[in-house]
Write a structure and sequence with these properties.
3 helices, two-stranded antiparallel ribbon, 6-stranded antiparallel sheet, single chain, Double Stranded RNA Binding Domain, globular, alpha+beta
């Protein structure tokens, strides 16, 4: 009877465990999003995972030994980190943040950061 209960419990828990360790889903500009990411705006996605599982997901997809991770903010109620793309092809980085019990992902395109850098460089040369 115990063996049956154990097998039954495992059968019920396996789908929940597979959801908790999300599989890769859509690629945006070459950056990987979790399977259940839903688009909310241009390059912005809401993720149905909790914060710890998103960290596990991105740690698996973009390990810290190959990608630079930086904490952006860590205030009460808000957590965020940035993953930089060392190749710089397609996407500059990924911003992952949690606020108001929602986890969101923003894929930073290469053009956005290069445009800002070129404008600031141009202003410095004119002065």
């Amino acid at each position: 009877m115990r063996r049956f209960a154990l097998v039954f419990a495992l059968v019920l828990l396996l789908p929940a465990l597979s959801f908790a360790t999300s599989e890769p889903g859509e690629h945006v500009l070459g950056a990987v999003l979790p399977m259940y990411a839903r688009k909310v705006a241009e390059l912005r996605y809401r993720v149905s995972e909790d914060w710890e599982n998103i960290i596990k997901f991105y740690s698996r997809e973009y390990p810290k030994k190959s990608y630079a991770w930086k904490n952006v903010v860590n205030q009460p109620g808000v957590k965020a980190f940035h993953i930089a793309n060392p190749s710089g092809k397609g996407w500059e980085g990924i911003n992952v943040y949690e606020a108001n019990d929602e986890v969101r992902v923003y894929v930073v395109p290469v053009a956005a950061t290069k445009t800002k850098a070129s404008k600031s460089g141009k202003k410095q040369k004119e002065q």
